[in-house]
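seq:
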Amino acid sequence: MKTRSHTKRIHIDGWTLVAIVISILVAFMATWKFWITPGYIYLAEELEVFTPQQFLGVAYPLWNEQLGRFSFSDQSKLYYYLFLYAIGEVFTYKALQGVALALPIALSFLSAYLLTSYLTKSPKAALIAAFIYAINPWVATNPRNLILRLEYALFPLLFLFQLKYLDTGKLKYELYVALVLGAAYTARSWTIYAIYSTLLLFAHVAFTRNAKSFSFLLAHPLALALAAPRILPTLYYYLTTPQYTLAVFEAKTITPLEYLTTYLYTYPGAVFELTYSDPVYYLFGLVAAAALPALLISKDSKALYFAMLYIAGFLLSTHSTETGVWAVDRLLRAGYWNAMVAPLAVAVAAGYLVKNADR
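struct:
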């Protein structure tokens, strides 16, 4: 007696396979000198070591000796750093560094391709957009922060899943967003995504008159639950040990509530002034000038949203902000971080431009 199998097979179309191959090639092209050159790189704090064990010791300290506190912000990076540590243990420390450099580039290309392909229904346009998103001035001027580059790479996936949820109402896409946020995102990038994500929700509701879309916001508490194992060790040790005085910024004894609701610097921002370039809102000026009108004249409400996204990224991409509200100024203090969405908007705009030109 024959029985039918209900197992669903994952189908990848030919264009997606092409995108995967190109993403690997682009990542290799961007890092090939590292792979063929003996030795290691001395780039970010986590990479200023020479073994996987030393990497983990720097990447995941329960106690930050420099600041004299438990490093709450570092714990949110745990999942990704443990993945890199496993790469180093299974293979070599050279492989760990290579993956840390190359993986975000490949993911940037692939995730931007998937998003733009969904928006434009044009694989050719999506490939152009993916290349712009993976290789641009923002990526070039932000080499140090490993987790920031990963968060940048996953931004298109978050918007893709959100758009699919808004189009279909399927809860699985809300779960996918929660998984990405819970597994990889730190508080600051998470907050920035939440701002732009909410902007998309309001735009969608304005176009569709369907307030049920706001149920997508439930993805955030679900993501917090998934992210809990990253921060619980530090929280536990903090709550069960005597309080400490922080003399780095001002002499003050902090309470558990303040610890959870206050952002603290890990290193003085001036340390990175020679590395980071804040005015990244000039990204691909000619590309943006040519492509953005394609969004503005499009009848697609999603295209108009990405035009709004670029404008918002442009306005927030200043060296510093002074609104008078400390929490807001603290969040938007660095233009290079706030501008993460600008390359995505430019890439999507270029995709629409290529699609219109190919008609």
